[in-house]
Amino acid sequence: MSIGAGSESEVFDVVVLGGGPAGENAAAYAIAGSDRTAVLVEHELVGGECSYWACMPSKALLRPGQVLAAARHMPGVAAKVAAHGVGVTDVLARRDAFTDNRDDTAQVEWARGAGIAVVRGHGRLTARCEVTVDGPQPRRLRARHAVVVATGSTATVPDVPGLRAARPWTSRDATNLHQVPRRAAIVGGGVVACEIATWLRELGTEDLTMLVRGHRLLARTEPFAGAAVAETLREHGVRLRFGTTTAEVSRPDVADTGIGRIHGGPVRLRLDDGGSLEVDELIVAAGRRPATTGLGLDTVGWDGDGPLRTDDHMTVAGVDGHWLYAVGDVTGRTALTHMGKYQGRVCGDVIAARAEGRALDAPRFRARADHGQVPQVVFTAPEVAAVGRTAADARADGLDVEVLEVDIAVAGSALARDDFTGRAALVVDRATDTVVGATFAGTDVAELLHAATIAVVAAVPLETLWHAVPAYPTVGEVWLRLLESRRR
């Protein structure tokens, strides 16, 4: 349908607040194969955080360093490769190509081609099934069947004296950097912090410090994974200061220079251990919070604070009727693009089924993978790939588990590169003899993850996994070594 401004409500079957991957999937699945209509309301760029400020630019920055490292450790190739880092200009140009220089024209064309309208502006709920879009001429959109909140999350900047006034970089600056700081400090030790540290060193940051509140990196993974990443970072000259927080920040010559540019003069940090640090740029990677501010949720009976709680149909809890849904980071369930897209698919299918009066009996109408079956890859050196529960998580959930853990030392890994090192672990529930978690740390281990995900989601017994024969010579042969480690 055509969209025009005016005082009358514009009616769609589905209204989606947020044009990122989760919202796009929800809209597309809700109207697929039907004459239903959908609209995305987006105040920034259609395609969302992942396309322009997170997954796509970060992986574009990381990949050249991975290729160079592989070449440096391959006889017959190493002598042909310069050993002095990547070409920054070319790397940034490739990054910009993947983000279309933050131009969402192609994404908007995709949406319209899929029958999804796009409205620019800040959308907020003003009544049941009603969204008002702010702008020079406010627009009122009404939904026949559903409103989906898919507004994502925003970077958290801790309330430390002087920190916000110093205009530190967040992940958006780091992924869209145009200037490489010579001296930098990163606040955080999670996935985003570790990946940023990896590419900053490859791009030429000479003096890099990570300030980590806890006592290890990647605290939500198996300990050996974070330890492996820490070892590599230290080998590359990164200083890791564990158990350290920032007490005060000052930057006398702060400047609003734009995303990815050094924001003025040097930053001085006073640390809680009495130490101090001066850097050219400070990067805060201290987590994210659901973007629920200004959405008008109170007008529809939602009186919560923080993430939008949902059931497994992705319907928002505490709101009468089955019309308000939420997907992606805003739910607080799992802040990963692929999980947000998964939730969007489930949500869209649920909306379609309810619109057509069909039952919600099939498994695909419930987002159950959020519960102990989530896969994730950390694109550091080494890569870390994990799915399901860690051993500690499983025990906390009351499971009696056995951990199978081996080095990744098979013919396929030896052929992959001369310096290949890695480790793998399976967390096995003794009661069912099934895998409830898996972690791999090593070169290119991301490609091992989907097999582990299928094993976890399908609850495949280990006796059955004996008959899933890994091809030779591949790194996947580590699956056989894991099974052999507990052979009876």
UniProtKB/TrEMBL annotation:
Which InterPro entries does this UniProt record tie to the protein?
Answer: Class-I_Pyr_Nuc-Dis_Oxidored, FAD/NAD-bd_sf, FAD/NAD-binding_dom, FAD/NAD-linked_Rdtase_dimer_sf, Pyr_nuc-diS_OxRdtase, Pyr_nucl-diS_OxRdtase_dimer
Q: What is its EC number?
A: 1.-.-.-
Which part of the chain is the FAD/NAD(P)-binding domain? 12-344
Q: A Gene Ontology molecular-function term?
A: oxidoreductase activity
Cofactor dependence: FAD
Does the keyword Nucleotidyltransferase belong to this entry?
no
Q: What is this protein called?
A: NAD(P)/FAD-dependent oxidoreductase
- Originating organism: Rhodococcus indonesiensis
